């Protein structure tokens, strides 16, 4: 019976069609940070620098916010980079292409020490706003992400100047490269940008009620998922102490741990993330494009004046998520008895994975390659993109996946209904085999299905890699 199953899977693999090429380009990002308003900016910079070989950091700009109105602190960013410089050589033992300290220091810039729209207009250019324009003018067609951890008026000034000094065609091309993810609105220039540049790609949980924003899933306590990985004890043992200069630089939590980190988590190339498609979901959460209902916007986080949206934005989306948990006997995994339905779970569902990944990279700061853990390497025998007809079967096989440290690996396949157009549950078993066979649903129009393969090693900490398989089902 097992041999027949394998033959069916292999046959179906030959029938798949690769309809889209995989994009392996690094994502580019400029950070806007109100560093020193809250220790969490420093926490997020420590994590960011540990992924600086996988993300092209194009700038780190100290800005203001509603919490930090009259000063900017670029020297605080420089201090973290200098700590990174002390561990960079050891990081290179684990992965290549970590930028050097001098290169990163040259990317630190300052915005105006003015709050919100007081820093936008004629004669209000800054080193930071000019730097954004300079990077946009470079001969690089990749999108430029603006990861906003505080106020966004430095970007607002860049857009103001582009509109005032560039032709319509040039301005349109420059703005088309921009992708903005902002941690709620922390000054009054965010709504000004969205109103005046309606074509700009913009991710935000509108208003200022942080408790209901998607990004707050990184530090929210959930009954039924692992909260230990955001505990102060876990942070002290796995990030701060005995982890070199970057561990020393990682401060205790004051308000919420790493509230700014979601603004770049989806830029990390892990096989799950696809930042050009916020509706697909990933480490930074899942978002949909719509115009929010202003009557449901609540006050409660910052002191920014609320205003209705005048156009569609990428914003909060709801996942229905039932975790898989370890099963003591029989099949190694089973579904839990708890199901979550909200915005924040779109991010928190991945939290244990990305915290363990962060922990491993902190280990790299001080450990040899042999004494540290590294993520599994997934090899699919089929394409990530499959096209089948209504009611047809298909197989996917990851049996050639390996672990660089020789660790045992576990497989978990699951459907991500909200990421596709077909949202009904597709049943298949066993979820934890290296190859699975799925029967496509019967459809009357073209539908897409998203399946996620999660491969986790049994090292310490347990590390996870992913593959996203997108299946297009055509009617017969």
Task: Provide a quick synopsis of the model.
This protein is of the alpha/beta class and 476 residues long.
Which regions contain 5 or more consecutive residues with pLDDT less than 50?
Answer: 1-23
Largest sheet: 6 strands, parallel
Distance linking N and C termini? 30 Å
* Radius of gyration, whole Å: 23 Å
Number of distinct beta strands = 18
- Relative helix content: 25-40%
* CATH architecture field of the largest domain: Alpha-Beta Complex
In the CATH scheme, what's the topology name of the largest domain? Answer: Inosine-uridine Nucleoside N-ribohydrolase, Chain A
Shape, please? Answer: globular
**How many domains, in number, for the residues?**
2
How do the strands of the widest beta sheet line up side by side? Answer: 3-2-1-4-5-6
CATH class of the largest domain: Alpha Beta
């Amino acid at each position: 019976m097992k041999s027949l199953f394998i033959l069916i899977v292999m046959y179906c693999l030959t029938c798949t069609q690769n309809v889209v090429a995989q994009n392996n380009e690094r994502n580019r990002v400029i950070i806007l940070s109100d560093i020193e308003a809250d220790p969490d900016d420093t926490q997020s910079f420590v994590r960011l620098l540990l992924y600086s070989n996988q993300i092209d950091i194009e700038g780190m700009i100290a800005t203001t916010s509603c919490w930090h109105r009259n000063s900017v602190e670029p020297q605080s960013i420089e201090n973290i980079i200098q700590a990174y410089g002390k561990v960079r050589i050891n990081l290179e033992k684990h992965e290549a292409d970590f930028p050097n300290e001098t290169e990163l220091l040259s990317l630190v810039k300052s915005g105006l020490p003015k709050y919100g729209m007081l820093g936008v207009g004629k004669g209000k250019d800054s080193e930071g706003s000019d730097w954004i324009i300079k990077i946009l003018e470079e001969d690089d067609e990749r999108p430029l992400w603006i990861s906003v951890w505080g106020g966004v008026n430095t970007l607002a000034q860049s857009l103001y100047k582009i509109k005032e000094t560039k032709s319509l065609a040039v301005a349109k091309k420059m703005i088309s490269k921009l992708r903005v993810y902002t941690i709620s609105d922390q000054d009054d220039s965010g709504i000004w940008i969205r109103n005046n540049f309606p074509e700009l790609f913009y991710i935000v949980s509108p208003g200022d009620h942080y408790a209901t924003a998607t990004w707050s899933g990184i530090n929210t306590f959930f009954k039924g998922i692992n909260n230990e990985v955001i505990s102060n004890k876990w942070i002290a043992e796995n990030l701060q102490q005995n982890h070199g200069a970057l561990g020393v630089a990682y401060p205790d939590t004051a308000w919420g741990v790493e509230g700014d980190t979601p603004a770049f988590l989806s830029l990390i190339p892990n096989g799950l993330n696809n930042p050009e498609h916020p509706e697909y979901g990933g480490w930074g959460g899942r978002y949909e494009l719509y115009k929010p209902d202003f009557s449901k916007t609540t006050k409660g986080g910052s002191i920014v004046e609320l205003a209705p949206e005048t156009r569609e934005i990428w914003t909060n989306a709801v996942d229905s998520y039932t975790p898989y948990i370890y099963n003591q006997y029989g099949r190694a995994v089973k579904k839990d008895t708890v199901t979550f339905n909200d915005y924040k779970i779109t991010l928190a569902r991945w939290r244990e994975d990305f915290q363990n990944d962060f922990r491993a990279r902190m280990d790299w700061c001080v450990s040899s390659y042999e004494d540290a853990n590294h993520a599994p390497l997934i090899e699919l025998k089929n394409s990530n993109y499959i096209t089948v007809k209504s009611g047809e079967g298909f197989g996917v096989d990851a049996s050639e996946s390996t672990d660089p440290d020789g660790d045992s690996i576990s497989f978990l396949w699951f459907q991500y209904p909200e990421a596709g157009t077909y949202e009904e549950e597709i049943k298949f078993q066993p979820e934890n085999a290296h190859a699975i066979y799925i029967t496509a649903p019967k459809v009357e129009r073209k539908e897409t299905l998203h399946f996620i393969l999660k491969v986790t090693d049994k090292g310490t900490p347990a590390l996870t890699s992913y593959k996203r398989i997108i299946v297009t089902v055509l009617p017969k």
